[in-house]
Amino acid sequence: MERSREAAMAERLRGERLQIMLSPEELVLIDDFRFAKRMPSRAATIRELFRRGLAAEGFLVAPLGQHSKDFGVAVAKQARPKR
Known about the structure:
The chain has 83 residues and is mostly helical.
């Protein structure tokens, strides 16, 4: 029950649109996965595959409400030599 509530919240907060081009073979694979997993749409299927791919590479989904600026790499400033 909690998972569906989180999924509904994420669905409402989604505001970016991403357009991609797929080969016919890629589309068949996406549809096969969608129907095997009983996913509600191609978009939901692609989001799930994207999430799984990122998780497999060690990237976790950020908690709701975090901004991209929270994930910046802090680089220490190097002291400039004095002239």
